[in-house]
Amino acid sequence: MIIQRQKEKCTHCMLCMRDCVYGVWREIDGEPEPVEPDLCNKCSHCIAVCPADAVIHTGLDPAQAVKIDRRNLDPALYRDIVLSRRSVRRYSDKPVPRELIEKIIDTARYSPTGSNEQNVGYNVITDRKLIAAKSATVFSFAERIFKKGIGQYIFNFLGSSGSRYMKLFNYARGERKTSGRDFIFYNAPVLILIHAPKKSRSAGENCTIAATNITNYAHTLGLGTCFIGLFTTALKFSGKLREGLNIPHDRHVYICLILGYPAYRFAKIVSRKPVSITWV
Predict the structure, then answer these.
(1) Domain that residue 168 falls in
(2) Residue 174 covered by a domain
(3) What is the C-alpha to C-alpha distance for residues 261 and 224, in angstroms, rounded to an integer?
(4) The pTM of the whole model exceeds 0.90
(5) Per-residue confidence band for 65, with pLDDT thresholds at 50, 70 and 90
(6) Structural domain count, the chain
(7) CA distance 129 to 225
(8) Which has more confidence, 152 or 106?
(9) Of the residues 90, 158, 159, 173, which has the fewest C-beta atoms closer than 10 A?
């Protein structure tokens, strides 16, 4: 890996050195120089901050260094995106184009990761039969738990909320038998499994941040999403569920998202509990 400063372009603003927190860049005779390239974690800050395009970094793709148009950074618009996004559990039968899914995930790869690991992976399932089969497996597992009385014990432990979940499960079981409605993946046409190496110390955080960016960006494209925590939990205990999903053996699935075009559009931003802030 080679890091160089193009002297003929450099304006000596020293921003590359001032912004680098790893000590890669140092001041030598009044000039910024990359004297410790081995310390670089490829964060791209020196390239991003340089106003003169004077930095060459062989470990990074220069074609991806695109000028930022700050006129597009509208805080009010972004706030509306965050506030208006809802978890969607009713989907239309309209398929989601593969190119659009790839665009969404490509955007998510710019999400921050711990120590710039960039280790988040995605498995996208669009086979409706496979999605339905995995849903049936999870629901069948839940039913077996109830028959053994374990589920009832768990719900009793949860108190009043447990009673509510018990009623919801009985309702879901009835609806599944009479109408075939899917209460695991909600008949969504796309399932996205977001995973990272099991040994990564920031794996869970990396996947969660990427998933949040996916849900927000998908919302702007007219798509709905929903986090399916039940499936990620089930994957921890069932090797059978991993079959056919091509999940690498050394990776753990931290987030499961469903994606599709909503059957209904929400007209209002909803209320939330007052935020809890402790100023120290």
Answers:
(1) 130-179
(2) yes
(3) 6
(4) yes
(5) very high
(6) 3
(7) 20
(8) 106
(9) 159
Half-sphere exposure in the Cβ direction for 153 (13 Å, CA): 5
Q: Tokens in use for 165?
A: 């979940």
- Distance (Å, whole) CA 5 – CA 7: 6
CA contacts within 13 A on the Cβ side of 54: 21
What is the maximum alpha-carbon separation in the chain? 79
Specify the pLDDT at position 152. 64
Same domain, 33 and 53: yes
Which of 17, 34, 64 marks a domain boundary? 64
| DSSP output for 220-256 | HTT-EEEE-HHHHHHHHH-HHHHTTTT--TTEEEEEE
Euclidean distance between CA atoms 122 and 247, whole angstroms: 9
Would you place residue 157 in the very low, low, confident or very high pLDDT band (cuts 50, 70, 90)? low
Cα four-point dihedral sign 231, 232, 234, 235: positive
Cβ-contact 45, 20 below 8 angstroms: yes
> Which CA distances in Å does 113 have to 40, 72, 91, 254?
15, 24, 31, 14
- Count of C-beta atoms within a 10 Å radius of residue 203: 21
